[in-house]
Design brief:
By secondary structure, this protein is of the alpha+beta class. Helices cover 16% and strands 35% of the residues. It has a 7-stranded antiparallel β-sheet with strand order 7-4-3-8-9-10-11, covered by helices on one side. Strands 1-2-5-6 form a 4-stranded antiparallel β-sheet.
């Protein structure tokens, strides 16, 4: 089943407004049109968003309006580049902005259709904001959707994920937080065939996440998490869970105490503890700084972690960019940096 293509921007925004107003983006979805390509949804929304405002009433009746914008994840492109490297081929240039790490993952949301309900991982996120008569900030909501979900999981997993994240928020903030059914969705994160990592929105202070894994596709258990190493300010910008014991996460934070804003960690005990891989550029890249570590991807013992680096010249208005990757042949025990970019 594929989600239904929205025929016009007006129809999409009105549907989003209704969902946000009545059930916080938790409404059921109709049986989709299987012929709808994802580019149709993206192009029809993006041409007008975020500047076009749609309101169900005339200006005389209602001075508020819905403003919408669309974010498209680069997760599929990142995975394709990493898999190309693992095949021994040369990838194209990919830029990943660490301060927009959410665009490197997926958007988890719940979906209900005639054939059942699921937790879906999508590549498009609709942000809708209802403004006041004088442009004042108003109600804000988010809905994730796509003409072709990146992945689909049992609906029961959505409840497990929300319950654990809600508990981590309570533990972190040391107070009681009550969430309604489905109220945490959509959630950002990363996923594979037998695992997901779902995280809260990144804000100026905290992000928490939960990792779940399955052996049979039906029974899911909590893998463990890296919340304890996130220093209160970090965000997950990449993940890969290989087995019941081994997994990798990439974190970004400007608050890490040694100026290494980009870090990659491995666990070999099911998420109970995490080891810093201490990934760094070789000496010949003096003056360059890692600006992103993301999309850890493995094929057996062979794995890569994509990387971007920047170099600021004597002229602060000129910045050079480098795309590369760290590669391992021994399940992440040792790593070697590679790049196609020539440096002077």
């Amino acid at each position: 089943m594929k989600p239904k293509t929205v025929k016009t921007l007006t129809a999409l925004l009105l549907a989003a407004a209704a969902a946000l107003a009545f059930c916080g983006c938790r409404s059921g979805r109709e049986e989709p049109d299987p012929s709808a390509p994802v580019d149709a949804v993206k192009s029809e929304i993006a041409t007008a968003a975020p500047t076009q405002a749609i309101s169900t009433k005339t200006p005389e009746e209602d001075q508020s309006a819905w403003l919408a914008s669309v974010s498209e994840s680069l997760y599929k492109e990142h995975r394709a580049a990493a898999e190309t490297i693992l095949r021994g081929d040369s990838p194209g240039f990919i830029m990943h902005h660490a301060d927009r790490g959410e665009l490197g993952g997926v958007f988890f949301d719940t979906e209900t259709g005639l054939n059942g309900s699921w937790l879906t991982a999508n590549l498009l996120l609709l942000d809708a904001e209802k403004t006041g008569s004088a442009g004042a900030a108003g109600e804000i909501g988010h809905c994730s959707r796509g003409a072709n979900p990146f992945a689909r999981y049992p609906f029961e997993l959505a409840g497990l994920v929300q319950d654990r994240i809600a508990q981590y928020i309570r533990d972190l903030w040391s107070n009681e937080v009550v969430f309604g059914e489905g109220s945490l969705y959509p959630l950002r994160g990363f996923c594979g065939e037998d695992w997901i990592l779902a995280a809260t929105e990144t804000d100026s202070r905290f992000q928490v996440h939960a990792i779940f894994r399955t052996e049979d596709g039906e029974n899911w258990y909590e893998f463990g998490n890296a919340n304890s190493i996130m220093d209160g300010f970090a965000a997950v910008v990449g993940a890969e869970i290989l087995s019941e014991t081994t997994g990798f996460v990439c974190l970004h934070s400007y608050a890490f105490d040694d100026d290494r804003c980009e870090r990659a960690y491995v666990t070999r005990d099911g998420g109970a503890s995490w080891e810093d891989l201490m990934l760094a550029l070789p000496e010949e890249y003096a003056g360059w700084s890692l600006s992103a570590l993301y999309c850890p991807t493995f094929e057996g013992a062979h794995g890569v972690i994509l990387a971007n680096a920047t170099h600021v010249s004597d002229d602060p208005n000129i910045t050079q960019f480098l795309f590369g990757w760290f590669k391992t042949e021994d399940f992440g025990a040792t790593w070697v940096f590679h790049t196609m970019t020539e440096i002077e």
